[in-house]
Amino acid sequence: MSAPRPEAAAPAIDFYFDFASPYGYLASVEIDAIAGRHGYAVTWRPFMLGAVFKLEGPRPLVDYPLKGAYTRRDVVRCARRLGIPFQLPEGFPRALLAPARAFYWLSDRDPALAKHYARAAYAAYFGAGRDISRPEAAAPLGPAVGVAAATLLAAIQEPAIKERLKQETDAAIGRGGFGSPFLFVGGEPFWGADRLGEVDRWLASGGW
After folding, report:
1. SS3 assignment, position 6
2. Domains: count for the chain
3. What does DSSP assign to residue 8?
4. Measured between alpha carbons, how far is residue 102 from residues 7, 20, 57, 88, 182 in Å?
5. Is pLDDT above 90 for 199?
6. 94: which of 40, 51, 101, 133 fits an S-S bond (Cβ 3.0–4.6 Å)?
7. pLDDT in tens, 38-92
């Protein structure tokens, strides 16, 4: 009797996001459910929008007088629709390298655990309005996913992990990613939390 054939891995969507992005937070709540309905997995990939700003010159949306006022209203409205808490942290926006580095250290050990950490980080930053930009603030989220804060604090500061985040950011930009969230379904790019409906329809139809 021949050995059973291994099941093929589920096709994956690449979900690029910045922890400092409120729209990344909104997308993180829905993307796995949308993908799962169509038999897709989701690979979460934090990256740093600051590198995009250096390349293209734009600023965070909230720094523009008119766009900023709209964005502050829109993200609250979208959070109400999703039934999730939302508040802009004091000093927003900040560069959130520390949680992104923690994510990749965890992902190398257990991608599912890294996703749990990412959700905890987003909940702390945009759900509770807590500043998690410093390593000393990002590491205490570790126990929520079963990792000691001291272990995660040391990991965040490893040179190899710092380089990993830089490489992932360069890879996102190399693929054409310029915002958060930015999704790739195969080679097809989708930008923005407001495109999740398009992603859903694309997956349902096989594309157009």
Report:
1. coil
2. 1
3. P
4. 31, 14, 27, 22, 20
5. yes
6. 133
7. 999 999 999 999 999 888 776 666 777 788 888 889 999 999 999 999 999 988 8
Within a domain: 3: no
- Determine how many CB atoms are found less than 10 A away from the CB of residue 136: 12
The reply to whether 7 falls in a domain is: no
pLDDT at 31 over 70: yes
Q: What is the CATH number of the domain that holds 44?
A: 3.40.30.10
- The torsion angle over the Cα atoms of residues 182, 26, 50 and 144, rounded to 10 degrees, is -110
Q: How far is residue 54 from each of residues 28, 38, 150, 173, measured CA to CA in Å?
A: 25, 37, 33, 12
How confident is the model at residue 1, as a pLDDT?
38
For residue 147, is it within any domain?
A: yes
